[in-house]
Amino acid sequence: MTQATVFQTLEAVFGDRFTTSPSDRENHGRSESYFDTMPPDAVVYVRDEQDCIRLVEHCYTNDLAMIPWGAGTSLEAQAAAPRGGVCVDFSQMNRVLDIDTDNMLVTVEPGITRKTLDHALRHTGLFFPVDPGADATLGGMASTRASGTTTVRYGTMRENVRALRVVTAAGQVIETGTRAAKSAAGYDLTSLFVGAEGTLGLITQITLKLHPRPSAISAGRVAFDHFDAAVQTVIETIQTGLPAARIEFVDTATVEAVNAYGNLNMPHLPHLLFEFHGDTDSVIKYAQDFQALCHANGGQDCAFSNQTEERTALWAMRHDAYYAIRALHAGARAIVTDICVPLSKLAQAVSETQHDIAQSRLHGPILGHMGDGNFHAILLVDPDHPTDMATARALSDRMAERALALGGTCTGEHGVGLGKRKFMTAEHGAAWSAMGAIKTALDPKGLFNPGKLVP
Ligand SMILES: Cc1cc2nc3c(=O)[nH]c(=O)nc-3n(C[C@H](O)[C@H](O)[C@H](O)COP(=O)(O)OP(=O)(O)OC[C@H]3O[C@@H](n4cnc5c(N)ncnc54)[C@H](O)[C@@H]3O)c2cc1C
Question: Residues 71, 121: one domain?
């Protein structure tokens, strides 16, 4: 069948939820990062699992690529369509299916966003902690194995997805995992699909682990003269078992950007931002113990509070940092780098990166999830400058190479997509071919999100 005939069939099946309109295609080919727009040939808005089965059957019979789409916030062009095909938009498949408070689990459709889920859980006393900043969908977060500011305490999507339902290339629905807290029954397929970036099938249901919503939270910030002292404080915090729920780092350039964006007056120094969860007495005690560690390492201006408004302002500032940095240069594009190293190597990785950026003409504030050894330089590129993009790519590549040399990874949380494929051999060796073999076994025609992640 020609593509036009296949599209007529899909239109007959999905009605106005199938579209080839230029604006829809354009919107589904955009990335939040520096990649050019790569639009699909068509978009289908799926509403339930049956839609997904029907779509996979049609596409597989007619050799049509399928690119799953959650909220499109991924940063390595994971949801773009470099080879065309059909974008599978999950935004209308967004129900909460079951809240199981006894077992602290929630089952959702993949198109629900993090903030909508949080709202739905508000009355339960429980919450879902993985927070990548952007209001991403749970399907996208599972597929990129997302993490964020709370990972140091609650883990990444890998630790927080209990079970999945997935439509495979055969149009069959498979269930991975159970509601039980553990299992020794065979290959861990849940972990295989978490982080697969839509290359192995369509996720149609996700069962997530919930956590008790803390009755009290203390949060604050502390400035340091030198980054090394901040790292030392974080290492001691973790070694002494202080249960930090978030420990974030912002460098001086980021502080300058958030001050300008939010009309703040933080001292022009590197800062740690921190948060502790527990009951009222314990969070104050944790914050005081943390404050003592900070002072011993030269920390200044350590301020913390357990008032909701102040905490909300602190984390709004952190989550807006990306937009604050972009606002420094109107019209600039951003390359958001992402590496993760062992904590003991973090000071070296950050200072060498800062040195590299300082040698270039680019502005590149650094911020990161310090408790995990994960950080980002946000490299601002003038799209009209002849060498900026090449310089930024070279800086980003050097960061990834350095992370690997220090025993870390080329991506802590943003994933592989198109941008990090070139480091997969260096990071995984023959294991990357093993990933390719798994892909071929589960998707013999290579129609799920082609060109991404695997060889
Ligand atoms: C300002 C900003 C800050 C960010 N900070 C972080 C951070 O701290 N931590 C972090 O981890 N990420 C971060 N990100 C990146 C991004 O938010 C995450 O990668 C997120 O998990 C993507 O979710 P999404 O719903 O937007 O997915 P999309 O971008 O739509 O898709 C991501 C991948 O998932 C696949 N996919 C989506 N739905 C399904 C499905 N149902 N079945 C199979 N495959 C599917 C897609 O094909 C694609 O490969 C940030 C992004 C921005 C813009």
Answer: no
Domain harbouring 100, CATH code? 3.30.465.10
Q: Is the CB of 297 under 6 A from ligand 1?
A: no
Is any atom of ligand 1 closer than 6 Å to the C-beta of 86? Answer: no
Distance, in Å, from the CA atom of 350 to the CA atom of 114, rounded to the nearest integer, reads 30
Helix, strand or coil for residue 186? coil
Residues 6+ away with beta carbon under 8 Å from 435: 424, 428, 453, 454, 455
Is the confidence at residue 34, as pLDDT, over 90?
no
Question: Per residue in 401-446, pLDDT tens?
Answer: 999 999 999 999 999 999 999 999 999 999 999 999 999 999 999 9
If 0-12 CB within 10 Å is exposed, 13-18 middle and 19+ buried, where does residue 116 land? middle
Q: Are residues 58 and 104 in the same domain?
A: no
Instruction: Tell which of 169, 188, 212 closes a domain.
Output: 212
Residue 440 lies in a domain: no
CB of 340 shorter than 6 A to ligand 1: no
> Is residue 67 located within the same domain as residue 104?
no
Q: CA gyration radius for the chain? A: 22
pTM: 0.96
Label the pairing between strands 173-176 and 216-223. Answer: unpaired
* Residue 451 belongs to a domain: no
Instruction: Using the mean position of ligand 1's atoms as its centre, give its distance from the Cα of residue 369 in Å.
Output: 17
Nearest 10 degrees: Cα torsion 343, 344, 348, 351: 40
Taking the CA atoms of 81, 451, 68 and 76 in sequence, report the sign of the dihedral they define.
Answer: negative
Domain span at residue 261 reads 216-323
451 lines ligand 1 (CB under 6 A): no
**pLDDT band with cut points at 50, 70 and 90 for residue 1:** confident
The mean pLDDT of 176-199, rounded to a whole number, is: 97
Neighbours of 342 (CB within 10 A): 12
- Distance from CA of residue 251 to its chain's centroid? 21
**441 in a structural domain:** no
List the alpha helices (DSSP H) in 35-113.
Answer: 49-61
Cβ-count burial of 108 within 10 angstroms (0-12 exposed, 13-18 middle, 19+ buried)? buried
